[in-house]
Design brief:
This protein has about 170 residues and is an alpha/beta fold. The chain has one domain: ATPase, nucleotide binding domain (Nucleotidyltransferase, domain 5), CATH 3.30.420.40. The strands form three sheets. The chain has a five-stranded mixed sheet. It has a two-stranded antiparallel ribbon with strand order 1-2. It has a two-stranded antiparallel sheet with strand order 7-8. The two termini are about 25 Å apart.
Length: about 170
Amino acid sequence: MTAELGPTGPRDRLIVGLMTGNSLDGISAALVTTRGHGSDRSITVAAHLNYPISPEMRQRLFGFHVPNALRADELMAIHTEFGEQLALAANAVMELGEVHADEVSVIGVQAANLVHAIAGSQGEQANGHMEIGELAVVAERTGCLVIGDLRPSDIALGGEGAPLSS
């Protein structure tokens, strides 16, 4: 990857990060400015917030955790609806940071965990991770480039998908 250059060298990039933990108590949203690459990278938090998840949405999400039964139509509906919640959180942190979507380089999302399994741990037979939260909805509602499936990507590379940061 090469540095994005401005008139005087590497340019600042605004990035929105969204993360939902297993407790589903809210969507952690951060707007950061990053400059440089590798060990020369600097990161500054411009704005952050915890966007609440309603008790009803939280209960519905927990309803899909194993060993509960899954219905495809219900799964699709909550996948789309939670994508709307993620978009609201992204838009809220951009507003708090007083930036417009066209200034943001990317939104990175780790959505609500449905299943996280690593073979050998807690009797799991296979490696994998699945999240709920439609990223296409986030992209459409924010007008930003959105990336996700960070944990499954780490698992595909031989990692355990967590933690994503230290």
